[in-house]
Amino acid sequence: MSAVDKAFHGLRHMIATGRLGAGEKIPPEADLCEELGVSRGSLREAVRMLSALGVLEPRHGSGTYVSQLRPEDLIGSLSLTLQLLPLPGLLEVYEIRRVLEAHVAAQAAARATPETVGTLFSLIEAMEATEDPAEASDLDHRFHAEIARAAGNPTLASLLAVFRARSRKYQVFTLPEGPDLRRKSDADHRNLATAIAAHDPGAAAGVAEAHVAQTERWLRALEPPVEDEGA
Fold first, then answer.
1. Could you tell me whether strands 63-66 and 56-59 are parallel, antiparallel, or unpaired per DSSP bridges?
2. Distance (Å, whole) CA 133 – CA 213
3. How many angstroms separate the CA atoms of 85 and 89, rounded?
4. Residue 59 pairs with which residues in a beta bridge?
5. Residue 82 pLDDT
6. What range(s) does the HTH gntR-type domain occupy (predicted)?
7. H/E stretch holding 57
């Protein structure tokens, strides 16, 4: 085990066992280096790694603190690795996404307020009106994010946002088949919003699962290139 790994796992153990609780300031560098048997450089690298994962929060002029360790924040850090998934790996994730999107759709149908329903239909109208694939993709993301928010579980909403962020890098709507695919997708969105507006969890879950499965089939069949972020 390298010195950086030793420092990383040592700090992680302190947090996991509750010795360092959420929101607490970590001990001074000198004390940690002595206890963990590592150099300041190795300790600082471990702190940077844990900060990237949302576990620690360096505060300028104050020190480094354990984050609030909210599940939704820690799950959000999965984007650091999931954003690297090639298409075959992403398609494996879709099996998980089908289940979770169906669940949050059912929960949203049970809990949706008139304001939520109004937001969903406004997003659908904007999606149907735009001819810009990038704007349509953004509106699509906001539509599904609103359903996840209405479901009432921030952790699930965060996890699904991570999954969707990688999915959006593979843009089927920019392909020659794009316009036809968008029309089918828009129709699914209307069916989903209608089921949520009717407070029908079973129907909402069924539409959501079918919608995600359909996107998976498109990705598998068309194998679109990943979006070039530098373009």
1. antiparallel
2. 21
3. 6
4. 63
5. 86
6. 1-69
7. strand 56-59
> Which residues neighbour 90 within 8 Å (Cβ) at sequence distance 6 or greater?
166, 167, 170, 219
pLDDT, averaged across the chain: 93
131 to each of 34, 135, 174, how far by Cα in Å? Answer: 61, 8, 11
Gyration radius of the chain's alpha carbons: 22
Asked if 200 and 109 touch (Cβ cutoff 8 Å), the reply is: yes
CA distance 179 to 159: 29
Question: What distance in Å separates the CA atoms of residue 96 and residue 89, rounded to the nearest whole number?
Answer: 12
Query: What pLDDT digit, counting tens, does each position of 103-156 carry?
Result: 999 999 999 999 999 999 999 999 999 988 889 889 999 999 999 999 999 999
H-run or E-run covering 17? none
Distance CA 215, CA 178 (A): 12
Judge contact between 83 and 166, C-beta under 8 A: yes
Among 159, 175, 160, 183, residue whose Cα is nearest residue 219: 175
Give the Cβ contact number of residue 40 at 10 Å: 12
Positions in the chain short of pLDDT 50: 230-231
